[in-house]
Structure of Pentatricopeptide repeat-containing protein:
Amino acid sequence: MVRGALGRSSCPTLLSSLAKRGTPRLLHLKEAHTVDAGVDSEPITTDNALHPFDKMLQSNPTLYASDFNQLLTGLVRSKHYHDAIAVYGGFRMNGAVPDFSTLNILMNCCCSVGFTGYAFGILATTFKRGYLPNVITYSSLINGLCRAGEWEESEFVFARMKSEGVIPNVVTYSSLIRGLCQAGKLEDARALYVEMKEHGIHPNVVTYTSLIHGLCQAGESDGAKRVFCEMKSNAILPDLVTYNSMIDGLCKSGNLKEAKGMFCKLIVSRLIPDVITYTSFIHGLSVAGKWKEASACLEEMIKNDISPNVVTYSSLIHGLCQTGKLGEAKDVLLRMESRGVIPDTITYSSIIDGLCNAGNFKEAKGMLCKMIVSGIVPDLITYSSIIYGFFIRGKWEEGKSVLREMRNCGISPDVITYNSIILGLSKAGKQEEAKHIICEMKRDGIHCTVFTYCIMICYLLHIRNLKEAKDVLKEMMGQGICPDISTYNSMLHGMFRIGNVEDVKCIVSEIKSKGISLDVITYNTLIHGFCNIGYWEEAERIFCDMMEQGVRPNAVTYNVLISALIKDGKESKAYRLLDCMTDSGERPDMITYDTLLHAFGMADKNPAEDHVRITLACSAG
């Protein structure tokens, strides 16, 4: 596109037509630096935007580009880009000839409103009139392309700019870095950041903030912190956007303590938190299940005269629903509506999902009706929540009804919807129907995932149908889908239930041969399984392997082994393992306490002494 565009001619007719558009827009010329002191500073509409020229032309029919540029500059400074383009159209219709500055201003206007096609026409006109584009020309174009998401085009223009000997400035680099970060090309953005510093161009607040935002969006909060520190060490003061990016990134990575610290720095810097700052906090707290703190944050926000938006409320509602606080979630919904904030699809979907998880289908359907009556269109997530809720509780007829309703609305189920149905049918013992759904899924062109097959394998092992479970595993691998550790964990659990130890050992060998690392769940499944069938030595060997592989045992691991050692009459080993547990920083829980208390209480020992010892051990840490 760019390569061809560089050869385009100017289209003054198109630009002039913008002056004739029918929708009037208010325009304040108070800030505009017009040459005519008599221009009225009251608001006027775009339809009257040519009025200043009429006065200019009446007093002086020969309108110089320099005079006209002052008016355009004023419009641009007040961010009336559309109006500036419209006024330019009137300027050209009067036969006036733009100079290089006019074209640069127009380039900036077109790029600021996303008219990148027109911007290339202006670039062509620049060449045609014998002007050589400068850093301002190219920087405006690159900025516009990046804003429009045309990353490859912006990189091409950047390369062309350098090949013509035009040296990029901080604006050029900052625009490109921001664009690359938005495109997820962090490595390219980093390389450009290094390049600008090597050329002696110092990053500014926009450069640093763009890079910080990109790193935070990619989940690299540690990298963002390093850039933030570098920024401050170079005496560049972070602005509110910088702090908001850092707070959002830290909250999303679960570093709430550091996010609070960043909030304090923001206040110390005499910056005022805005709706984005608070919403990031509320979202982070809600995801972490700290709904009380999230609610307090909302109250503080309102107290500080900052109006929560739909994202703020939806974040809190989602967090409340996830923790089963449906009453509180509905209260927040009512409060949200009373403040004139209209719930969106995400808001309703969160509450519907919460109601379905609680088994309150009647109210969930009522909420769906309210949503539709309010003019909010349910999406795939909304319907999938209800379908999953019905199928998981064995209400497959109701689930099918919602599925039909969803299809009638023109919404096709995705793999998550199908997996919900398959899971529900499998749990209800309707294996044949589950197979039928898989066939339907394939007919719709939706490929089964690891989770789809895992559901089937789990159910078949649950009903002790090892042969068919193996067949499903073969089919899965035949489709080019490799089982993950979760699939293997499910298989190991099922095989232990059947008592098929040889197959367990084969599966473990297969996992290792594929280079898949065993996780704590795998080790716990193996230890628990071997202990249950009395293979104590094998369980201990697995535990040693776990430690050697650097997989940290959790309370479940220790509880299973301690219980097994006591049953095997190895109380001293159980004591040592208890000491090992507390030394590793793993806090014994009530299961540990009950296991030891029951075992030693039944043994021929001094119960009081053992009770004290167990209590002290369990309260450690």
Remarks:
- The radius of gyration is 33 Å.
- Strands lie at 26-27, 44-45.
